[in-house]
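Objective 1b of the project was to move from sequence-level analysis to a structural picture of ligand recognition. The entry below was assembled by the postdoctoral researcher (A.K.) and checked by the PI before modelling. It contains the amino acid sequence of the target and the SMILES of the bound compound, FWO.
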Amino acid sequence: MITLIKNAKVYQPECAGVKDILLIDGKISTIGENISLEIKNAEGVLVEIDGSGMVAIPGLIDPHTHLLGGGGEGGYKTRTPEAMLTDFTTAGVTTAVGCLGTDGVTRNMISLLAKAKGLEEEGLSTYVYTGSYHVPPVTLTGDVMKDFLLADKVIGVGEVAISDHRSSQPSSQEFRRLSADARVGGMLSGKAGIMNIHLGDGSRMLELILDTVENTEIPITQFLPTHINRNPALFEEGIRYAKGGGYVDFTASKDPEYWEAEGEVRTSKGIKRMLEEGVSPDQFTISSDAQGSLPLFNEKMECIGLGVGKSDTILPEIRSCVLDLGIPLETVLRASTANPARILKLTSKGRIAPGFDGDLCLLEETTLELDTVLCKGQIMVRSGKPVVLGTFQ
Ligand SMILES: CC(C)C[C@H](NC(=O)C[C@H](N)C(=O)O)C(=O)O
Ligand SMILES: [Zn+2]
Ligand SMILES: [Zn+2]
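Corresponding predicted holo structure:
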């Protein structure tokens, strides 16, 4: 399959200017000017896309999603539905990392892995964290390190819940041991071994991570704490943590105004504040908690309702950073492309450059609205509409 994208303004994330992009057999082959080809592909047709008036960005990486669904905090009827292919592709997301959450009992790692493989068969790139909120973690093999070695898609452990009334309240020793197993399991399998940490609204905030970093040889870069913007106090702590060299993950939300009413710091405003505080744009990521539950609890900690995370909350935050807050696209784009790729060691992902996977999006240049999405060289979305559907869509 050969695809030639002509005259798009290319953000690798860094801006490379107006270029042609040649994709061959699912990989980015060449970026250059005036690429013209007489090659006919197997079907006798060279797919050519006119990218003029568009920006080309790497396909978005969503580093925290519930591919299998999640929820359950309000009983059986609140178990959220699993993700479908076009939930991601129509959001510009070409790589999704799945995890289990509160409910690691009715949902298990074998189902999560099967779901991830199903989405991969449909054209998306997927990976998973082994575990769930709970410590000790649910696993595939009964052992975190064996999971890394035996399941290619396992790249980290998560989402491990701390500072939350739903967490398993792990001791510092339990948390240290799990962090060590993630690190060594990652080493032995050539993977990131990242600990994806769920931060709740509890006042202990990042304590267990800082305890591990300060009292063991495990580096702060072993951790990717998510929901850093879920309340103002945690966000302020997150700035200090990031200035100390830590990575932080913003949870983009469906309705930023509503979540601000709930005290969440809108992702785009949080990113602007982090940059103003001198945090490097290489240190934060954006995820969606897609298909995870977004439960609301009253002061008695009773679940009084819940929403469902959606991957299509990420691009609006990138758009808001650029169009509302004046942050350069090549700066904020790293948070959803090169940063998660580097932090999670997805070496073929996150950049528009020769040799990388053919995952890219074309956005209308002025509005940054999504027009086209390619996953591993295959056109999945065109003019904002899915041209490849999931099996049951
Ligand atoms: C960041 C907030 C708004 C949502 C967050 N979601 C999860 O952690 C996933 C959820 N518990 C599930 O298992 O599906 C939360 O519940 O605190
Ligand atoms: Zn969470
Ligand atoms: Zn989650």
